[in-house]
Amino acid sequence: MSIFLPSQIGTSTNLLTFNDFTVSPVYRIQTRQPQRRQIRELDLPVPYESGISDFETLIGQTAYVIEGTMYPGSESEHASGMAKLRKVASLDIAQDDILSDNGYVPYQWDEFSSTKLLYVKVLYVQIMESTRQGLVQPFRLICKIKDPTILGATLKSADTLTATPSTSTGTALYSFKYPILYGASTYTVTADAINYGDSPAYPIGITVTGPVNSPKITNTTTGEYIEVARNIGAGETLSIAYDKDTLIVTHQGVSVLNLVTATSTYFKLRPGSNPIALSGSSISDGARAVVSFRDSWPLS
User: Fold this and answer.
1) Averaged pLDDT for residues 48-54
2) Per the confidence metrics, is the pTM higher than 0.70?
3) Average pLDDT, stretch 81-98?
4) Which of 14, 210, 225, 256 could form a disulfide with 232 if both were Cys (CB 3.0 to 4.6 A apart)?
């Protein structure tokens, strides 16, 4: 892949575009974009600061270096270009920006007719100002990697609303009440989440819409499931979000993390097909599950 393809880092408030030759100054990248199963030669460890020290994922333990050169057309462009470089490392990144994940922003580039991204946080900009090359200004962006995983920029979803459900009803009748349901209807609906990458990926989010009693979301590829002992009424939603440093389970905005069953597993989506099944007891065909995810490739 050419090192001159356009790429960008940051959000709308501090967006920096590389290799865009239609504007001035031009920020030219001197190395290729991140490649799967590749850690660049300039990667280096950074001091542990805060957050979760996860040695499997290298959270807070690995930095990614973006090297480049700025080509301004005048002294005023040099000053404004330097300010733009510094701003990409600003601490004022909006935490509620939909493109920002607690200060980590997407580093995006095009590869093989698709856009990919890597979440990074620019710790600081390394600039050694000199007039030796005129206004030409070399720079380095020292970025912390949130997770050494390359993601597809397109947010995908598997929605059971478009699937055909299977229903079975028990017929046993008893003269007294048991503490569990007998003769209740069970309903299962499945949608396929296809991860076209070759690395397991955490779902971006799982949303279940009722009516369903004790919803159970199963990745039938692995048999792993998440089950919540909660009655989800018609039109109500159960939201599940998790990754290496996040775990949220809410019903109508109220945490029900304590109602996740002990046998549940916060599963990943394996490369290829992942049929996701929603099941439960005494529910109607209005029940629905939506799994949002991105294709995933390893950086190293």
Assistant:
1) 42
2) yes
3) 75
4) 210
